[in-house]
Amino acid sequence: MSTITDLVLQAAPATKARGYWATVGRRIMRDKVSMACALILILIFASALLAPWLGLADPYQGSMIRRLRHIGTPGYLLGTDELGRDMLSRLVYGGRLSLIIGILPVILAFVIGTGLGLVAGYVGGKLNTAIMRTIDVFYAFPSVLLAIAISGALGAGIVNSIVSLTVVFVPQITRVAESVTTGVRNMDFVEAARASGAGPLTIMRVHMLGNVLGPIFVYATGLISVSMILAAGLSFLGLGTKPPEPEWGLMLNTLRTAIYVNPWVAALPGVMIFAVSICFNLLSDGMRSAMDIRN
Amino acid sequence: MFAYIARRIVYVIPIVISVALVCFLLVHITPGDPLVAVLPADASQELAAQLRTAYGFDRPLPVQFGLWLWRALNGDLGNSIATGRPVLSEVMRAVGNTVTLAIFAALIGFTLGLLFGLIAGYFRDSWIDKTATSFAIAGVSVPHYWLGMVLVIIFSVQLNWLPAVGAGPGGSGAWAWDWDHLRYLILPAVTSSVIPMGIVTRTVRALTGDILSQDFVEALRAKGLRETNVFRHVVKNAAPTALAVMGLQLGYMLGGSILIETVFSWPGSGLLLNSAIFQRDLPLLQGTILVLALFFVLLNLLVDIAQAAIDPRIKRG
Question: What's the CA gap between B279 and B291, in Å, rounded?
């Protein structure tokens, strides 16, 4: 956690030379791995967004006579699934739901957790203790167990799985935000703002938010990787969306029965989850080292 | 040391109570009346009212929690709706299998993680570091339930070397320490080991790098210490943090085994949780989660104490 605080503390001197974020931006643009990951993610996002206009087969249209075709069958580039639906189309359309349920929890947790952590870190004292001790309770559960517990109790459904994952990630982001905020709170420029008569809300919004957001953002980007795996995992268990909706985790589940007939088609949805997850992880690593000016 | 242990245990009590509270409230966030779960579909109004009183659902929530906690402390977590057997015995039987799996996975994951991490940290930016780092990042990014499927496809479907599902020949029978049973353990254990492998590698690599850049290492080398002995100092300094991370990972494997156990139909607590969810067996769901969470809290406590035992600085902190 101390490294995150260090990053913030280094923000100040770099500003004088070129502007901290400009430097970070230049450094990340030069990182080949990060750029490759960004490109792959943009492709996956764009294809999911533009799916209806890509001239793909109907992802819901099955056929009993062309079930489980192999990868590379003419007309079915990635084969067909257990109900004869075009795999390529389902993988592209599947991105829509999979990306939403994987990323939305992190965005929600980012907003809630940053707010909680900022308040806890800035106000300190009893409020800090109250917030952080409540957060500790959630740390007493392994995150998969917590997600399953809430999702299992609420029942299957997209909204429920998003809610359960948000609950899992809020404590983690709050902890990071609190630790970064505590590091910034006692710095001179905050003291100067207070001395010049700025109220706590103004100080948090104007003077602190910009300084704490970077490290929290990097952390949250890394969380998307976990979130994608967990969200698809909930669907895989049957706690997410319902058939025939294309969603990578659910597709993996329904295709499990086909591993003796056409194993490699059955494994395809997992490749998508893996690709998104590893790209976000590498991107997060790239951003972290780009923000670490010491290197 | 005893004072430290006593203090840690006192800290754990409010956590345990809060965990129990979360588990208790879990049943109350379920849509609909919690009574539905224990009520036969064609139950009359009188029976519903009778059961409501019997289960104490007509009392205020804090009273209900108190009663539930008291019974839980006495080892009574209610009966499973599906089987009618006590939840605690159902859970404890399943947890045994989960522990077996987690320990094997930990042996694989931690051994590889420590090895990769130390080598990568020691030879930073070499090809060996890059290979180990790639393994690590793949390990933490891979959807492990998918990896399980892929391993089944390769080793069960295509090569026919290892069984795809279950925990022993001829159905679920009792576990035994022979090759016939161990064969069933290999694929699930390898699958569960990739996440801890990745995380331990990354942690130990970073630790080793940090330690090697410290002044005391320079001093050791200046003193003329052989590199193997310098290495011993590195290991000693990395141990407390590495231990904490490994303890946490072991806890995650015990508590988060539901996906792996579902893929391999491994008869552990995760599979039990899965059936509890889909049969709407709320007492079983609640009890399994409570027991797993308490295991996790206990494990964290043990790790804290072990950490303090090998690193005296922590006791003062």
Answer: 19
Segment B266-298, tens digit of pLDDT: 989 999 999 988 888 888 989 999 999 999 999
pTM for the model: 0.88
For B36-72, what is each residue's pLDDT tens digit?
666 666 777 787 777 777 767 777 888 888 888 888 8
Termini Cα distance of chain A: 18
Please give the Cα distance from B269 to A154 (Å, whole number).
Answer: 20
- Contact assignment for A145 to B293 by CB distance below 8 Å: yes
CB A169 within 8 A of CB A151: no
Burial of A188-221, coded b for 16+ CB within 10 Å and e otherwise, reads eebeebeeeebeeeebbeebbeebbbbbbebbbb
The position carrying tokens 């990769």 is: B116
* Nearest-by-CA chain B residue for A152: B277
Task: Retrieve residue B205's tokens.
Answer: 């690599």
Task: Decide if B244 contacts B1 (C-beta within 8 A).
Answer: no
- Show residues of chain B in contact with A237, CB under 8 Å: 258-259, 262, 274, 277
Cα B306 from Cα B310, distance rounded (Å): 6
Which residues are bridge partners to A222 per DSSP?
none
Residues B45, B58 contacting (CB under 8 angstroms): no
Euclidean distance between CA atoms B101 and B104, whole angstroms? 5
Q: Give SS3 for A110.
A: helix
Asked if omega into B169 is within 30° of 0 (cis), the reply is: no
Q: Strands, DSSP E only, in chain B? A: none
ipTM above threshold 0.90: no
For residues B255 and B247, give the distance between their C-alpha atoms in angstroms, rounded to a whole number. Answer: 12
The size of the A-B interface in CB pairs under 8 A is 133
What's the one-letter identity of residue B255? G
Spatial neighbors of A74 by CB under 8 A, at least 6 apart, are none
| Tens digits of residue pLDDT in A258-277 | 888 888 888 999 999 999 99
> Which residues in chain A touch residue B292, judged by CB atoms under 8 angstroms apart?
142, 145
Nearest 5 degrees, angle CA B67-CA B72-CA B77?
105
Cβ atoms of B84 and B169 within 8 Å: the answer is: no
The residues near A47 (Cβ < 8 Å, ≥ 6 apart) are A54, A92, A95
SS (H, E, C) A101-167: HHHHHHHHHHHHHHHHHHHHHHHCHHHHHHHHHHHHHHHCCCHHHHHHHHHHHHCCCHHHHHHHHHH
